[in-house]
Design goal:
Length: 384
């Protein structure tokens, strides 16, 4: 039997997550303005489900696409370039898949395999309670027979209208013991889970980042995946920071890249001047700085095991991406001139969307304190 031709091999090669994102992108771009009125990008998420991107980060051995963090970041940049809300909301699912995938591949953690297989087979959408549910934890866990009764309100739950499982936690306090954060998943179809219509924001209006109220859902003891001390860094959060933050900030680089291209197109409609050239050059410089900072974040996870130092590199990168991506879009607005002020140009939406880069952990003052403590050889356990 003759060997398969290169053409046959190419046909059988599965498409990458980036290629799939590029195929979906024109549809998302066409819809982006229409969902800028606080409507969730539900139709886009329906396409993400059927396209194979929901399971893109699941290892191939478990039925997924096998995309690594670098490929997932590139995918999110493409999505965000065309629709910031879709990119940001999907980044929350994406990192919730990337983290157990890393654990399965690097740590041989068998406990995460059932979830990853379900994501691949059922195309489950995972939700994150995000930075609002950071290291201190939030909500109350009360011990009951067989498990814990949960009472909580989780804010910034991006993708909430269409999510299947909320990956979250709550604080358990036992007499005479330090508060502990319990981590678990809660099905969004639980009768004890209620979606609150609270998402009215400056930008990223289509992310569906509604508040989720949990009132009395009982999590079985066996379903608690992690117990840790509240209010201090834990190795699990070093892993979360190392993988999740670069994926989230890839979105903002995509938004800035989109703003840059729109501004260049508008600027080319008029005769160039020295001022125009300077503005364009400043914009290019800021955008390049954001790209370099993102690469530094991704390199930290690519080459180093999660640690306090890895978190430091990622969070320095997070601060730089935010600063330079915001500045690049500001320069894009200046470069475009009055034409960019019209909604029809699409640039003002990018300007509003990029502002959300300010609000993910670690916030600038906390990041600086964390970096400073490490530089001086001081403890960072409670700096978050």
């Amino acid at each position: 039997m003759s060997a398969p031709s290169a053409q046959t091999a190419a046909v059988s090669e599965p498409r990458s997550a980036v290629e799939i994102a590029r195929e979906l992108a024109p549809v998302f771009a066409e819809r982006a303005a229409a969902v800028d009125d606080d409507r969730f990008v539900a139709d886009n998420f329906a396409l993400l489900k059927t396209s194979g991107l929901v399971e893109a980060g699941v290892p191939r051995e478990l039925g997924g696409g096998g995309a690594d963090v670098d490929e997932l970041a590139a995918m999110l940049r493409v999505l965000a370039y065309h629709c910031g809300s879709t990119g940001l909301a999907f980044s929350m699912h994406t990192h919730q898949v990337a983290i157990p995938a890393w654990r399965w591949q690097r740590q041989k953690a068998a406990a995460v395999e059932p979830l990853l297989r379900r994501v691949a087979k059922e195309r489950l959408l995972l939700l994150s309670s995000g930075g609002s549910d950071w290291i201190a934890g939030s909500g109350k866990a009360e011990k009951v027979e067989g498990g814990y009764r949960i009472t909580a309100r989780k804010i910034f739950t991006s993708g909430a209208p269409t999510g299947d499982i909320l990956m979250t936690g709550a604080v358990f306090e036992a007499a005479g013991e330090p508060p502990m954060v319990l981590h678990f998943g809660i099905p969004m179809n639980s009768p004890h889970v209620k979606l609150l219509d609270t998402w009215r924001t400056l930008g990223m209006r289509g992310t569906g980042s509604q508040d989720v109220e949990i009132n009395g859902h009982v999590v079985p003891e066996a379903a608690v995946g992690l117990k840790r001390k509240a209010g201090e860094w834990h190795p699990s959060f070093q892993l979360i920071a190392t993988l999740a933050i670069p994926l989230i900030y890839a979105v903002y680089v995509g938004v800035a890249e989109s703003a840059r291209d729109l501004a260049v197109g508008l600027a080319k409609r008029k005769a160039p001047s020295r001022a125009t050239l300077e503005l364009a050059g400043r914009m290019e410089t800021e955008l390049t700085a954001a790209r370099l900072a993102l690469e530094s974040m991704l390199a930290a996870g690519r080459h180093q095991a999660p640690s306090a130092d890895t978190v430091n590199q990622v969070m320095i990168g997070r601060g730089l991406v935010a600063r330079h991506a915001i500045a690049a879009v500001e320069q894009a607005m200046e470069l475009a001139g009055g034409a960019g002020f019209y909604r029809a140009a699409g640039l003002e939406r990018r300007f509003r969307d990029i502002q959300a880069a300010r609000y993910h952990p670690l916030l600038p003052n906390v990041q600086a304190e964390y970096a400073g403590a490490l530089a001086l050889g001081l403890p960072i356990d409670r700096i978050f």
